Amino acid sequence: MPEKKPTRTADLDYFYGQSSELFSFYRIPKLLFQDSRFQPLSTDAKTLYGILLDRMSLSARNGWLDKAGRVFIIYTVQEVQDSLGCADKKATKLLRELEEYGLIERKRRGLGKPDLIYVKNFSSESSKTPYLNRDNDDSGTVQNTLQDPAKLRCNKTERNNTEVSDTDPIYSDENDWMSKHAQLEEYFSQSLEIDLLLRLCPDDEDTIYQIVDLLVDTCATNRKLLHIAGDDKPAEVVRSRFMKLNADHIRFVLKCLAENSSPIRNMKQYLLASLYNAPTTMQLFYQNQTNHDLAMRR
Fold first, then answer.
1. Do 136 and 32 reside in the same domain of the chain?
2. Residue limits of the Replication initiator A N-terminal domain (predicted)?
3. I want to staple 116 with a disulfide (CB 3.0 to 4.6 A). Which of 82, 107, 191, 295 is the partner?
4. Where are the alpha helices (DSSP H) in 201-266?
5. Is residue 172 part of a domain?
6. Do residues 151 and 196 both lie within one domain?
7. Is residue 120 domain-shared with residue 243, that is, in the same domain?
8. Is residue 163 part of a domain?
């Protein structure tokens, strides 16, 4: 039976100028492909390592460290499945594969809680010897130095945490020590890729944090109506739209803010309106810019 070819739905456009910088990327170390130690490692496992590295940078910025000062992350099997579009069996296999090559170390906590994952330094000498993780670590280093996650150091807001519920990442009260604000802050830190934004837009650090705080406060409100862009809109509609924003939308808002020459009387309302309209206005703006560039080339 002949292989079914994928349906071609549309022609993709080219990149023009600096338009490729609008997107965010996972970084996979070249060493994983070039070093003979890691050549047997599957491509999917290398990709997963790049994803875990990206999450680790967020944890490091938020101060999620154990007592020994080591950065850890929480990345569930379900999150691996969602990230790579694979089944549970393969996601588990990939995590085990990274463990066998010493690239990650998992600390199992029991009681239905997700594992803590330590992403290991791929370039260190110790990684030359494959490491097989054991449930009962006899070195004593992990067990004796790890604090309870509720008591871990956090960033300046003292509200961040890496653990989210598998069933509802925003409003689950499975972990009674995690407040709604903390869950929302964690959600937006990930969905907006704040670590990447801070690297790409270092001069806008204060504004980026202001945007995150504004999104968290707005989505956590108990009010039924919110005043956005001159109109009262249902809070659920606003919350739904805000939670679909990504790093590209934030960069677009920052760009509009930088190019705005008119005085802004109410920065909060300006940002709320810009964020609410960003998905629509960004698409129209870049489509118009592309059409203009094409017209100029003719």
1. yes
2. 24-98
3. 107
4. 205-220, 235-242, 247-259
5. no
6. no
7. no
8. no
Residue 187 resides in a domain: no
Tokens of 252: 């677009």
Cα(152)–Cα(68) distance, integer angstroms: 11
- 285's tokens: 């703006």
Phi and psi torsions of 116, nearest 5°: -85, 135
Q: Clarify whether residues 203 and 149 are in a common domain.
A: no
Per-residue pLDDT of the chain (298 residues; tens, 9 = 90+): 555 555 555 677 777 766 655 667 788 988 899 888 898 999 999 999 999 988 888 788 777 888 888 889 988 888 899 999 999 899 999 999 999 999 999 988 777 678 889 999 887 654 444 444 434 444 344 444 444 443 433 343 333 444 443 444 444 443 433 457 778 888 888 888 888 888 888 888 888 988 998 998 888 888 889 998 888 989 888 988 898 888 888 988 898 888 888 888 888 899 999 899 888 887 665 555 555 445 555 5
Tokens of 256: 């509009």
Here the tokens at position 40 are 């047997």
Quick count: other Cβ atoms within 10 Å of Cβ 100? Answer: 16
Smallest Cα–Cα separation from 134: which of 94, 106, 111?
106
Q: Which of 155, 180, 206 is the last residue of a domain?
A: 155
104-107 vs 116-119, strand pairing mode: antiparallel
Task: Read off the pTM.
Answer: 0.45
φ and ψ at 117, to 5 degrees? -115, 125
Other C-beta atoms within 10 Å of 196: how many? 19
Inside any domain, residue 168? no
Q: Which of 109, 135, 155 is the last residue of a domain?
A: 155
Is 104 in contact with 55 (CB distance < 8 Å)? no
Mark whether 115 and 35 lie in a shared domain: yes
10 Å Cβ neighbour count for 149?
Answer: 19
Centroid of chain to Cα 206:
19
**Chain centroid to CA 19:** 21
Split into its structural domains, the chain has a count of 2
